[in-house]
Hints:
Blueprint: E1 17-20, H1 22-28, H2 36-48, E2 53-54, H3 71-78, E3 89-90, H4 94-102, E4 107-113, H5 116-123, H6 127-143, E5 147-153, H7 166-178, E6 183-188, H8 195-207, E7 215-219, H9 226-235, E8 240-243, H10 263-272, H11 281-295, H12 302-308
Parallel strand pairs: 1-2, 1-8, 3-4, 4-5, 5-6, 6-7, 7-8
The structure holds magnesium ion.
Amino acid sequence: MRAPQVETASGLPAEVTIYEVGPRDGLQNEKTVVPAATKVEFIERLDAAGLATIETTSFVPAAWVPQMGDAEQVLGALGAAGVSRRRPVLVPNARGLDRAEQLGVQAIAIFGSATETFAQKNLNRSMVDQYAMFEPVVTRAQEAGRWVRAYVSMCFGDPWEGPVPIGQVVDVAERLMGLGCDQLSLGDTIGVGTTGHVHRLLEALAARGIAADRVAVHFHDTYGQALANTMAALRDGVTVVDAAAGGLGGCPYAKSATGNLATEDLVWALHGAGVRTGVDLEALVETSAWMAQQLGRPSPSNVVRALTS
Ligand code: MG
């Protein structure tokens, strides 16, 4: 069987926007450093498979993340199509924004932390100081008409601190969205969240004025909860879902984290439920199988495995 039997589910949106993070979040967290030409081919194949929104790269210093040290090369090769509003890049600070602007990037993403420990480890500053780092970046980007997404990491648990209070996550989200960001992405960086937790967090955000139409969800499959959590969020009105082709990636600073929700697993579930994604599943699976060869290891995605065996 190459596609699921379609039986429409109630309570789900008619259409979901998949925010593909494989080339950035996925490859950034793989041990192998992938050549720029392979990344370019990966992005072009994802685009051809119908993934309209693709996060392409990251403008963090190469010393922090060597896997993304070729950002200029990758975007240079992609040309104008690679810097549109549907091709966000990760930008940590003013220097990163300078680099992105020189290439004409139209959409950026900043990345905050919901916990003190992860702010220290990932941003090298306190939770309070993260806002001072991001504020000038968001202000400048907004003034230039660029689209801005705010990621928040460790929304559902932290490997060092354990449980993360929902109120604490909402406080961070409110501060970051208050800077003027267009979209919030809730990251379950270590994949520990469950469906009730997803519902409570979305409810708490809505109560503070951050409705589901400005929220995206970003789940990892460490505990096998990514797809269940995603479907729960969709039933609460979210329509933007982060996923990585082939389930690439983990998190270099969080040992217990495994891959992102696999785009193929998401597409199978959505298409079966009658939800449109615009994605050609066959072309996507072929792309992930090819990337798995480049990385020298099989894809952790169940759907990729089932469709390629
Ligand atoms: Mg991720």
